[in-house]
Design goal:
Blueprint: E1 6-14, E2 20-29, E3 34-38, H1 45-52, E4 60-64, H2 66-69, E5 78-81, H3 93-103, H4 108-121, H5 137-149, E6 155-159, H6 167-184, E7 187-192, H7 195-201, E8 204-208, E9 215-220, H8 229-232, H9 235-252
Parallel strand pairs: 3-7, 3-8, 5-6, 6-7
Antiparallel strand pairs: 1-2, 1-4, 8-9
Helix pairs in contact: 3-4, 3-5, 4-5, 7-9
């Protein structure tokens, strides 16, 4: 057995304006899992993700990163992909991907191999010299993913990264993400409000209630990988989507005790 990548132990989060974003959230994500956080807008999905990244303090409870605490993961063990690509428009694709290494003190010459390898993983090694204005929406998101990959994280946190893309591009990037996840052995926590996307990608879905955010269902998706278009049109996929959709509707009716 390997130690979990991240553990939430009865976590609460209340913001300075009094908004209770999370209440009594407990979850354990094992190494190698692909877990989706699914829930209505404003339920605290993104807040939970940022806390998992260490980008904020809990108001109650605790978050642990057992593998990092055991020395099995370095300081660069967490990668974060935001809802928007958040690229520097004045910088080349190479420089955007180099950024986390540059901030860590790695020179451009030393970082070149890692940056080009990350771009190759997302199919953009031929665009290192291009600028964000020259890229499509899907390509910009690939650059953002490459920037998260360049530090070789074990835990990848993704906050609705494909939500603004058209359906065809979104499906393609879903497939590419699963291929990378399987080949590189990441642990992924993926925030989405799409039932269909969560079922396609995940081996486990955590459904969250409306504010204050709480986990109301933990649903395993036992369909095998690799997944492709045949899974999207299968009876099993439809059944899982109905199950998750019903859990989401129940979660939306939950009120704070």
């Amino acid at each position: 057995m390997t130690s979990p990548s991240v553990v939430f132990d009865r976590v609460d989060k209340t913001f300075s304006n009094g908004t209770v974003a999370l209440k009594d959230v407990s979850l354990t994500v094992q190494k190698g899992e692909f877990v989706s956080l699914l829930g209505p807008s404003g339920c605290g999905k993104s807040t939970a993700l940022r806390l998992a990244a260490g980008l904020g303090e809990v108001s109650g409870g605790a978050i642990r990163w057992p593998r990092a605490e055991a020395g099995r993961v370095g300081q660069s063990g967490i990668g974060f992909v935001f809802q928007e690509p958040t690229l520097m428009p004045w910088a080349s694709v190479f420089s955007n991907v180099w950024l986390p290494l540059r901030l860590a003190g790695t020179s451009k010459r030393v970082a070149r191999h890692e940056v080009m390898d990350a771009l190759s993983l997302v199919g953009l090694d031929g665009f290192a010299g291009a600028y964000p204005r020259e890229l499509s929406g899907g390509m910009k998101m690939r650059v953002s993913i490459a920037r998260a990959l360049v530090t070789r994280p074990e835990l990848l946190l993704m906050d609705e990264p494909f939500g603004a893309l058209d359906e065809i591009t979104r499906f393609k990037l879903n497939d590419e993400l699963l291929q990378l996840w399987q080949s590189l052995g990441w642990t992924v926590i993926f925030v989405t409000h799409s039932v269909f996307e969560s079922v396609y990608l995940s081996n486990r879905i955590l459904v969250m209630s409306a504010r204050p955010g709480r986990i109301t269902a933990d649903i395993p998706i036992d369909a095998p990988y690799p997944r492709d278009e045949s899974f999207r049109s299968s009876v099993d996929y439809g059944g899982y989507c109905r199950q998750v959709s019903a859990a989401l509707h129940r979660a939306m009716e939950v009120r704070a005790a």
